[in-house]
Model the fold of this input.
Amino acid sequence: MFKRISHINGVEDDGEILFATQFDYLFPEAANSKGCLLPDSEACTAALVNLGTAMADDELPAAPPDAFASGNPAVFTYFGQFIDHDLTARTDREGSVTRIGNGDPVSRLDPALVTANLRNGRRPQLDLDAVFGEAPGLAGWGGASPASSQSQVLYTSSLDMHLYEHGARRDVIRGDRRAALIPDARNDENLNLSQLQFAMLRFFNEVKAAQNFGHDVENYIRARQLCRWAFQYVVVNDWLTTVCDPYVLRDTLANGPRFFGSGAGRSKAFMPLEFSVAAFRFAHSMIRPSYRSNAAAPIESIMDLLDFASPDKAANDRFFEPDASGQPQLKELYAIDWSFFSGSGPNVQFARKIDTKIAKGLGTLPFSARMGDPVLGHLARSNLLRGKNLSIPTGQAMADAFGVTFLTPNEILTGEDAGIVDALKAGHFHHRSPLWYYVLREAVVQQDGERLGEVGSRIVCETIVGMIRDDLNSYLNNFHDGAVSENGIDVKPGPNGQIATIADILKFAKV
Ligand code: HEM
Done:
C-alpha cells in the first residue's frame, strides 16, 4: 500500500511506499515489570510535562560558536535523522495505539497491546529505501501499475535518480504544493535534511555513472548495491564511531550484539521500541537553534527551516522560485554548501552537545498537525510522554538489563538547571529516569556531551550493528566482494572511489 507519512500532515493515502515490520521490546521482561517502568499516574504525567518544559532552552538563534556547541559538525545531526528515517517510523502515528496529544490522559499501555498493534513503517536494513523506494520493479518498468508510476517519478528513463539541478541551484524534484517527490516525505521536513536527501540521490547518480557494464540496468543494480554498502560502512565507521562510546561500538562489532538479533536467541527480527521511542531520539538535543546554508544565505532559525516547503506559510515563499516550467523549486540562495556542515574548515557549524537541553524552536513545532498542541507541539514533552505511553523501561532498568552500572541520583541531579532539578525530584526521576532523558544525561556525565554514554551506546550499537549483521546483503557479509574492504567501499573501478566517511559521500556526490 502506498502512503505518505510525515510529521507535517500525518498519514495520507498515496504517494509513498510504506513497509510494515515488527516492533518489539529489547527487554520484554522489563517492559512487563512495574518496577522497571514509570508509574502509571497523573502525577507522573504532570512531572514529565514539567521536565519537558524545563528542557527547552531560551538560547536565541545565533551565529556559531554558541554556548552548546560540540566538536561534531552539524552534518552528524542530519545524517542521523536520515538514518532514523531509513530504519523506523510511526511510533507517533498510530492513533489507535498511542495517544499523547489533544488533552488525552497519558496512560501506560500493555506491552502486548503495543507489539500486537504498532507497526514500523520502515524496512530497517539501512538499505537506502528512502532513496530507492521499493526500488523499481525492473520487470514491469514503464507499465501502468502504481509501482512503476512511482518509479517513473523517482527515476529518469536511463535509471538515474530525478534531480532538480541548475548550476548551484539544487533541490529534490517537487510536485503539487511543492511536495518533494521522494519515497519518505519526512526527508523534506527541514531544509538541511532535504538537501542531504538531494546529496544521497546525486551520490547514487555519480556512482552509477562510474560503472561500466555498458547497460543501464546492470549499472543501476551494481550502483545501488555499492551505495547501500557505502552508506552502511559510513554509518558504522564514521557516524556511530563519532556519536557512540568507541569501546561499546568495538565490543559490539567484535563480539556481536548480545541482547538483540539472531545471536541473542530472538527468533524473529524486530525494531526495538527502546531504540525508536527513546535512545535514537538522542539527536534531538544536537539540533542547533539556527543554521546558515552558505556564505550568501541569511541565518535562519530552526523554527523557520522546519516545514520550509509548506505553501500554507506565506513566509516560506522566500525559499522558492519557479523553474522554467513554472514549478516552484528551492532558490540557489538556500542550496547547502556542505563546508558549512561538514569537515573542519572555518565555515563549519557544529552540532549541539548531546545533553538535556533542546533548542528553543523545538518547543513550538510549526507542523500543522502538532501546532498549538501543548504536548505534540513540544518535542521534549512528546518524547517523554510517548515513552511513558508505550511502556518504555527506565534508564536504570535498561542499565541493569545490560549489566552496567547506572547513574546515581547525585550524578543525575548535580549541575542541572533548577527547573530540571525540580521536575526530576517531583517525579522521582533521579531514581527512575525516563529512558530518553537518561540517555541524554548519561552522555553529559560520561562523555561531556560529545557522544552517547554506555546505555545509549549499547542500545544504538546493538540495534544498528545487529540489523547490519543479520542482513546477508550487507557490507559486513560481503567482504568476498572486491569493492568491500576494512578501509571502505570502492564505489568505482580504479582509484579515487573509496568511501569511508560522510565527507567522502558528499565529495563523491559533487555537492
Ligand atoms: C529538526 C530535526 C527534527 C525534528 C523537527 C524532529 C521531530 C520529531 C517528531 C515530531 C517526532 C515524533 C515525536 C512523537 O510525538 O513521538 C520524532 C520522532 C523521532 N525522531 Fe526526530 N526530529 C528531528 C531530528 C531527529 C534526529 C536528528 C534524530 C536522530 C538522529 C531523530 C530521531 C527520531 C526518532 C528515532 C523518532 C521516532 C521515529 C519513529 O516513529 O519510529 N530525529 N522526531
